[in-house]
């Protein structure tokens, strides 16, 4: 069968660099070099970075190191460390300067486009399966655990919610390990390629919005308000300021882990049915706690830490996370399961096409489309990345939408699985 013939092949050759400390050093040098050249006044670099966004290089260069065997993103623990330790601290430091009233004034277009993205994934999977099965009929008619539709249901869980929703779909629809492994590869590669596209578009947001006639007044008002606050409270940071910033960011992160270690087993033991809401995921509770505390602190004097660079330190954490996400991507895997990647690409094109059509119809800014999409496809780990590519003050919008994705992910992925099953 096709499912048995197409497998994800594992590399037997050891990477050149396996020490995580060395890999972290390489990533730090890479990030430093990118930002040094991006801030250069040399005509070549000015021209280069008008074409290629710096954030895209932070993501893409590590993927090349992984692809060509310099490092092994799967064996490295750097992504786990960055996502569990640096991401919560980043969310706190980016959120303490948030203005909830200003975010509320962004309107309902962000929510509309988020759910448009969700619908695009629900219908995109079945459409992709119909198109590809017209050329490869053997994709249909398989009833075993390695049926393609079962694997696609797990991708729907990931692209609407996250890892917990993906695992839920694997159990609900009984996806076999073989098809699940293949679809995890499709999930990672296609989702990351789409994020790269969004980052490129973010660099050209002004011209795109101008051509579409989108009303960006609310977004500009929010950015201007944050910039004004920074200008009024900005001062040269002292060592005490920087240590306080680290204390707030990493301190809240510690309590976020403590909270998730307590609350997750409680829900598992007492409310088994809440797994569908991702309430059995420690990562979910960690993100919720860090974001909530960050918002609460934004109403206190802690907000003044933004004047000494809180969001800049948070952004530095974020770029380390971006680099570790990139190092998990192996471009060669596209050629190991080509049919499945065709499925994934068509699926993503349906999602993206629907997003662009609705955004055009309601004259929504590119920001809403990009963040609404990434909140679905990438979740809390990457939605703030895309949002902050527009402006650091917008990162909390990505987090809030991503948490919404965790909540609806299992329901909508289940619906997608039902449609896929009816076709297969």
What features would you highlight for this structure?
19 helices; mainly alpha; single chain; 424 residues
What does the model show?
With 424 residues, the chain is mainly α. The protein contains 19 helices and no strands. It has one domain (98-312, 332-423). Helix content is 73%, strand content 0%. Helix 17 (366-377) runs antiparallel to helix 18. The two termini are 15 Å apart.
Total number of domains: 1
Helix coverage percent = over 70%
Termini separation: 15 Å
Number of strands: 0
Arithmetic mean of pLDDT? 83
Radius of gyration from the alpha-carbon trace, in angstroms: 21 Å
Low-confidence stretches: 1-12
- Relative strand content: under 5%
Order of helices and strands: HHHHHHHHHHHHHHHHHHH
Q: Mind summarizing the main beta sheet?
A: none
Number of helices: 19
> Which secondary-structure class do the elements indicate?
mainly alpha
Taken from the alpha-carbon principal axes, the silhouette is globular
């Amino acid at each position: 069968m096709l499912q048995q013939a197409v497998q994800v092949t594992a590399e037997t050759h050891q990477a050149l660099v396996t020490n995580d400390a060395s890999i972290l050093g390489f990533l730090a040098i890479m990030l430093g070099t990118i930002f040094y050249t991006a801030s250069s006044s040399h005509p070549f670099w000015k021209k280069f970075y008008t074409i290629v966004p710096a954030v895209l290089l932070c993501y893409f260069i590590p993927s090349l190191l992984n692809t060509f065997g310099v490092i092994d993103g799967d064996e490295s623990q750097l992504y786990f460390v960055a996502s569990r330790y640096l991401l919560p601290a980043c969310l706190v430091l980016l959120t303490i300067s948030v203005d909830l009233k200003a975010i509320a004034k962004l309107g309902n277009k962000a929510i509309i486009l988020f759910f448009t993205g969700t619908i695009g994934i629900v219908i995109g999977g079945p459409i992709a399966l119909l198109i590809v099965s017209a050329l490869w009929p053997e994709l249909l008619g398989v009833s075993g655990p390695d049926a393609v539709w079962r694997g696609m249901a797990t991708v729907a869980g990931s692209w609407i919610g996250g890892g917990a929703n993906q695992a839920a779909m694997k159990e609900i629809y009984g996806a076999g390990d073989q098809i699940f492994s293949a679809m995890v590869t499709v999930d990672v590669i296609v989702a990351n390629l789409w994020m790269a596209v969004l980052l490129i578009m973010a660099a050209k947001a002004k011209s795109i919005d101008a051509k579409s006639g989108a009303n960006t007044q609310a977004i500009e008002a929010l950015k201007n308000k944050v910039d004004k606050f920074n200008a009024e409270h900005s001062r040269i940071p002292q060592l005490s300021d920087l240590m306080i910033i680290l204390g707030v960011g990493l301190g809240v992160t510690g309590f976020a882990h403590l909270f998730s270690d307590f609350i997750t087993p409680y829900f598992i033991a007492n409310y088994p049915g809440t797994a569908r809401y991702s309430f059995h995921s420690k990562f979910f509770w960690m993100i919720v706690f860090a974001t909530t505390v960050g918002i609460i602190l934004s109403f206190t004097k802690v907000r003044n830490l933004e004047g000494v660079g809180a969001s800049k330190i948070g952004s530095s954490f974020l770029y380390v996370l971006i680099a570790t996400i990139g190092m998990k991507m192996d471009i060669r895997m596209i050629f190991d399961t080509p049919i499945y990647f065709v499925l994934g690409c068509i699926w993503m094109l349906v999602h993206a096409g629907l997003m662009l059509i609705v955004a055009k119809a309601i004259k929504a800014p590119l920001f809403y489309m990009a963040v609404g999409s990434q909140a679905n496809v990438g979740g809390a780990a990457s939605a703030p990345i895309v949002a902050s590519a527009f402006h650091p003050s917008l990162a909390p919008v990505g987090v809030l939408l991503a948490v919404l994705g965790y909540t609806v992910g299992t329901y909508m992925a289940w619906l997608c699985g039902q449609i896929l099953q009816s076709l297969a």
